[in-house]
Amino acid sequence: MKSKLNQASFAAVTASMIALLFSADGSGAAAEERTPVAIESDSFTQFISEPVIQQLPAESEENEIQDEAIVESDEAISARTLAELVSAQSAPAKLSREMHCLAGAIYFEARGESLAGQLAVGSVIVERSKSGRFPDSYCGVVFQRSQFSFVRGNRMPTIRTRSAAWRKAVAVAQIADSDAWESPAEGALFFHATRVRPGWRLTRIARVDNHVFYR
Question: Is the pTM of this model over 0.85?
Answer without folding.
Answer: no
